[in-house]
Amino acid sequence: MRVDSEQLELEKNDLYRDHYRRVLSGLIAMVVTCLALSLLLAGMVLRTSKTNYYATTTTGQIIPMQPLSAPVVTGSYLLQWAELATRACFNLDFVHYSQQLEQASSYFTPTGWNALMGALKKSKVLDSLEQNKLMMSAVVDGPAVILDEEIVRGRYTWRVQLPLLVTYTSASENKQAHFTVTMDIVRVPVLEAAKGIQIDKFSAE
Questions:
Q1: Among residues of the chain, what percentage have pLDDT more than 70?
Q2: pLDDT digits over 156-192, tens only?
Q3: How far is residue 7 from each of residues 1, 14, 17, 204, measured CA to CA in Å?
Q4: Which of 43, 59, 73, 159 is least buried, going by the fewest C-beta atoms within 10 A?
């Protein structure tokens, strides 16, 4: 009888041990599976590339789009662009100045264009150009500098200043005038301006 009891006890212990091992194996398998899934998900997240957005022109050209809070151009490029835009506004003649200014308008936002025209009228440049039959030529006669750069109302903005020498030529005389040009250049959508930048404020004093 004692032998039977001991045998029964041994069988019960074996059964419990087998159940314990199976449960433990199942738990280990679940832990390993969870770890593998976690690593897989982490890898998928890390490998997921940033979504790129593109715009298309009326001709079908695809243009990558950047957020307006991103600068998209280097400082040296910006200064060269600012010099080119300024010269375009002041290389005028009394016959074609309307068309020349129209070509220069692509450098400006509507607000910036109004600021440019206000500056030209304030200095009476256009009146003098037409009345005295003048030709104007402009050169940047010193280094252009970036005074400030920041994000304003969600748009990356640079304040640029440069010295400008304008020569007025007529049939009888030449005159020169020095101006300090200050402008705010802002990021705009590439569908509005191919380079993604335009002048939003402009003064020449």
A1: 80
A2: 999 999 999 999 998 888 999 999 999 999 999 988 8
A3: 10, 10, 15, 107
A4: 59
The DSSP secondary-structure symbol of 165 reads E
What count of Cα atoms within 13 Å lies in the side-chain half-sphere of residue 47?
Answer: 6
Asked whether residue 113 falls in the same domain as residue 26, the answer is no
Tell how strand 155-169 and strand 174-187 pair up: antiparallel
Q: Does residue 107 sit in the same domain as residue 200? A: yes
- Same domain, yes or no: 72 and 169: yes
Percent of the chain with pLDDT over 90: 49
Give one word for 123, left, alpha or beta, with left for phi > 0 and alpha for psi -120 to 50.
alpha
- Assess if residue 131 is contained within a domain: yes
Chain segment 90-144, per-residue pLDDT in tens: 999 999 999 999 999 999 999 999 989 988 888 788 888 888 899 999 999 999 9
Give the C-alpha separation, 100 to 202, whole Å: 18
Residue 154, Cβ neighbours under 10 Å: how many?
9
Domain assignment present for residue 61? The answer is no
Q: Is the pTM for the entire model greater than 0.90?
A: no
Q: How many domains does the chain have?
A: 2
